[in-house]
């Protein structure tokens, strides 16, 4: 049966998600993209959708009342907290999320992948990995063996999560960051681009640098 999908988010990651779906269709998957929803799309993003022939369906508030209930949704919004709020609206309306995995991604054995997950091109997921719901893995990110990524985690391009790492709900790992083996990144934390995490990260904090340090605890410039 053809899966009928709406993508929520017209921005960069929304269009990257469309690329994943188009690659899946080219590889033989039976998916129909109904269109894209966005509460406040930029004109430039709408132009890009028009160029690729994807309809803009309006805002979630406009579209959801007319949904039949058999559509699947993907929240293609990079910010974990926003993604969580948007996904709640769709699941409250009784819709199920779709998971899409680019054909070029490598997924190791015994890995478990939740609903609403987007895995883009060139991603490597090792063995015995657990990905919660609405996890985003951006291009060329690498997830080590036995890692657990809870719901609404975003792994930006080129980031590396080592083996046995516990990445808790709503964490954002910046582009090119590295989390060393066996560590925990607390819920809602942000790891800056290019940071190397060498110790557990407290929930809700932002860490940057090599080794990664809490930005709130860093000395002020010149101080
Ligand atoms: C860490 C991060 C979340 C901070 O964002 P922010 O709160 O808006 O912070 P600001 O840009 O105001 O910068 C605050 C300070 O941190 C520094 N800083 C910001 N990001 C940094 C990083 N990744 N590494 C080291 N220092 C960083 C800034 O230079 C600034 O320092 P200063 O106070 O000495 O001038 C953000 O810069 C980041 O790295 N996000 C990930 C980006 C990413 O992955 N992009 C790819 C998207 S596909």
Automatic annotation (TrEMBL):
Residues 4-89 form the PglD N-terminal domain. It comes from the Bacteria. Keywords: Repeat, Transferase. The keyword Zinc does not apply. GO terms for molecular function: transferase activity. The active site is at 145 (proton acceptor). Substrate binds at residue 78. Coiled coil: none annotated. InterPro entries: AcTrfase_PglD-like (IPR020019), Hexapep_transf_CS (IPR018357), PglD_N (IPR041561), Trans_hexapeptide_repeat (IPR050179), Trimer_LpxA-like_sf (IPR011004). The record marks 146 as: Increases basicity of active site His. This is PglD N-terminal domain-containing protein. It comes from Microbacterium saperdae.
């Amino acid at each position: 049966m053809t899966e009928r999908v709406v993508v929520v988010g017209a921005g960069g990651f929304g269009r990257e998600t469309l690329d994943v779906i188009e690659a899946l269709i080219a590889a033989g998957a039976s998916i129909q993209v109904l269109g894209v929803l966005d509460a406040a799309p930029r004109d430039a993003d709408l132009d890009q959708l028009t160029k690729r022939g994807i309809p803009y369906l309006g805002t979630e508030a406009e579209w959801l009342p007319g949904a039949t209930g058999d559509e699947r949704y993907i929240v293609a919004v990079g910010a974990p907290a926003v993604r969580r709020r948007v996904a709640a609206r769709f699941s409250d309306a009784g819709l199920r999320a779709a998971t899409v995995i680019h054909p070029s991604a490598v997924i190791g054995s015994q890995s478990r992948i939740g609903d609403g997950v987007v895995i883009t091109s060139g991603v490597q997921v090792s063995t015995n990995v657990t990905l919660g719901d609405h996890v985003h893995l951006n291009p060329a990110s690498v997830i080590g063996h036995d890692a657990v990524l809870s719901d609404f985690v975003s792994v930006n391009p080129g980031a590396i999560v080592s083996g046995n790492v516990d990445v808790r709900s709503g964490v954002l790992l910046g582009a090119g960051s590295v989390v060393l083996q066996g560590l925990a990144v607390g819920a809602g934390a942000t790891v800056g681009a290019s940071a190397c995490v060498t110790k557990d990260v407290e929930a809700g904090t932002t860490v940057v640098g090599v080794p990664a340090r809490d930005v709130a605890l860093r000395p002020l410039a010149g101080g």
